[in-house]
Structures are given as C-alpha cells and as structure tokens.
Amino acid sequence: MKRKFAVFYILVTSLCLAAFFFVMFYGLGYRVNRSASLPFLIYKTTHINPETDIRCGDCVLVDLSKISNAVIDQGIERGYVNLREPMLKRIGAIPGDTVVLTENLLSVNDEVIEMKIAPHDSNGKELSAWPTPITLQLGEYWLVSDPERGFDSRYFGPVNAIAFTHKAKPIF
C-alpha cells in the first residue's frame, strides 16, 4: 500500500511542478509555436509599439479578433486559425512597400521571393490569392509564413498594426 501511495505522490508532485513551470514560463513571455507557420518551437515575446517597433523580418503575434476580413472569417470557419489563440507570423513587407503576387512568386519592391499560391487547401477547398499589386499604406503590413500552405497575407491581404499584440523572438 505504501508503494502505491509513493507512486501516486510522485506523480501528483511531478504534475504540480510541471504546471508551475508552465505558468512561470508563460508569465515570463515565452510561447510555444503549435503551428507550422514558422520553423522555431519556442519564442520569447515582448510588448510592441506598432509605430516604432516593427521591421521587415520581425515575428509578431496577431490578435485575429482585431481583423475584420471575410477571408479571416473563412479561415476560422475552416480551422486554419483560432480566435482564442494569436497567430504567429513574420513581417514580409512594411508601409510604403509594393507587393505583387503571381502564381509562384511573391515580390516586394521588385525583390522576388519564391512563395507559391495554393489554389486549394489540403481538404480541396478553394483558396484565392489577395489581389495585387498593392502598395501598403501607413499602419499596414504584409504577413508571411514559411510553409507553402501557410495561411498568411497571400490569402487575407495586409494587416493593420493594431492587430499586433507582441513581437516574438525565436529562441529554440
């Protein structure tokens, strides 16, 4: 009987310690990336001043509830993104940049990045590219992700900086 109690005690203690470290980890601004949008697993987040802190190549957390867009709504409905969880994306273009999409390329100010436009998602549902060319206005940013099938500005267009909650720096 004592042996079963000892195993139970060790299990409960381990779970409590894991929960404590998870809460502490989260409270210090560390986040685990659960999507394939970006390659790193752990990010350290810091609060952001959208007027001065955003540069091309930065990673940001995006509050989807602050984006009013039918394509985002469709992405939520299809399960690409979740309103309860911020979206983690990289800044691909900033205000003043001109973005052009073709079938297999993303061009920012005539600098070409190979980034395909998927005609449909993995379930066969149709996807449409955002109409371009577009020159980003003050406060607008173009979000990109690494995988070919990532749900980003290729499909839902530019995002206003008011939707950015934190900057995220890859740790691991």
From the structure above, extract its key features.
172 residues, alpha+beta, 4-stranded antiparallel sheet, 11 strands
Write a concise synopsis of the structure shown.
With 172 residues, the chain is α+β, with helices and mostly antiparallel strands. It has helices spanning 2-27, 70-78, 153-156, and strands at 30-32, 42-47, 59-62, 87-93, 98-101, 105-108, 111-114, 134-135, 140-144, 159-160, 164-170. The strands form two sheets. Strands 1-2-11-3-4-9-10 form a seven-stranded antiparallel sheet.
**Could you tell me the radius of gyration in angstroms?**
20 Å
Quickly name the level 1 CATH class of the largest domain. Answer: Mainly Beta
Give the N-terminus to C-terminus distance in angstroms: 43 Å
Approximate helicity band: 10-25%
Query: What structural class do helix, strand and pairing data support?
Result: alpha+beta
Roughly what is the average pLDDT, rounded to an integer? 84
Give the strand tally: 11
- Written as H for each helix and E for each strand, in order along the chain, the element string is HEEEHEEEEEEHEE
Strand coverage percent = 25-35%
For the biggest β-sheet, the strand order reads: 1-2-11-3-4-9-10
> How does the major sheet shape up?
7 strands, antiparallel
Structurally, how many domains make up the residues? 2
Reported by name, the CATH topology of the largest domain is Umud Fragment, subunit A
CATH superfamily of the largest domain: Umud Fragment, subunit A
Which residues sit in consecutive blocks of at least 5 with pLDDT less than 50? none
Query: Count of DSSP helices?
Result: 3
The CATH architecture of the largest domain is Ribbon
